Amino acid sequence: MRTTLITGANRGIGLEFSKQFAADGWRILACCRYPEKSDALNKLAAMYPDQITVHTLDVANHEQINRLAQTLASKSIDLLINNAGVYPGPMGYSFGDTDYEAWAQAFLINTMAPLRMAEEFADHIKRGNQKIIVTITSKMGSVADNNRGGSYIYRSSKSAVNMVVKSLAIDLKSIGITAVLIHPGWVRTDMGGPDGLISTKQSVSGMRNIISQISLADSGKFFAYDGQIIPW
Ligand SMILES: NC(=O)c1ccc[n+]([C@@H]2O[C@H](COP(=O)([O-])OP(=O)(O)OC[C@H]3O[C@@H](n4cnc5c(N)ncnc54)[C@H](OP(=O)(O)O)[C@@H]3O)[C@@H](O)[C@H]2O)c1
After folding, report:
1. Structure confidence by residue, pLDDT tens digits, 130-164
2. Which atom of ligand 1 is nearest to the CA of 191?
3. Looking at the DSSP assignment, which residues form a beta bridge with residue 187?
4. What architecture is the 3-224 domain classified under in CATH?
5. Which residues, 6+ apart, have CB-to-CB distance to 120 below 8 Å?
6. How far apart are CA 232 and CA 226, in angstroms?
7. Pocket test for ligand 1, best of 16, 86, 146, 155 (most atoms within 8 A of CB)
8. Quick check: 93 pLDDT over 90?
9. For the whole prediction, is pTM greater than 0.90?
10. Quick one: which atom of ligand 1 is closest to the CA of 196?
11. Is the peptide bond preceding residue 184 cis, with omega within 30 degrees of 0?
12. Residue 163: other Cβ atoms inside 10 A
């Protein structure tokens, strides 16, 4: 059975990844900050008791990441999905209105955590068959695409994680691990809001389609959910 570890699996895009991979027969290591409050995820796990296990993980907490990697030391992971993310606001949207503490926290979650996860889980992934790390980024982190300004915190944290994953792709190529970035589209979730252009179902179906086709030759690429390449 193929195995995926998903961060922020309790709602939004992470929950939809869990649903679709479970329906497809995968084993899911579903991570979230507060399992006891994650009703939708617990309900899903109860539907797939042989496939889904729920694990406590605040990705800003390196000790927790380390502890989880040790707890799962005997497991192979085919696919790590660094999905957990924050869009701090409203402070940080516009010039002169920046919450610097929120910026530091966003960097911990959006930028540093994907690298820490890769460092702690590289051995598990090396033992998997597919050996893929997907980091969910955003088109808002594309420098080339920025023609509206603002959103300093979110944009910079996603641009920075793009660079993290580019280096990761180069560094992990020799051990056969593929690391890519995917922009999920503007999705109707708590983060994307009700005006988002696509549903979680459409977004995740598109991203799963990419995941099913990529190989080591694609490592370091910045995809949109529909398979297009986004300029840096
Ligand atoms: N929705 C969009 O339009 C859109 C567009 C571009 C990129 N993205 C990216 O897609 C990813 C998922 O976003 P979404 O739309 O599903 O957002 P969401 O509905 O707000 O969900 C965010 C998820 O991240 C988790 N999370 C936040 N901080 C965490 C932490 N410190 N440790 C562990 N988990 C944490 C949340 O858990 P809690 O419930 O515990 O807070 C939740 O599960 C993010 O990386 C986001 O930046 C989304």
Report:
1. 999 999 999 999 999 999 999 999 999 999 999 99
2. 20
3. 198
4. 3-Layer(aba) Sandwich (3.40)
5. 65, 66, 68, 69
6. 17
7. 86
8. no
9. yes
10. 3
11. no
12. 12
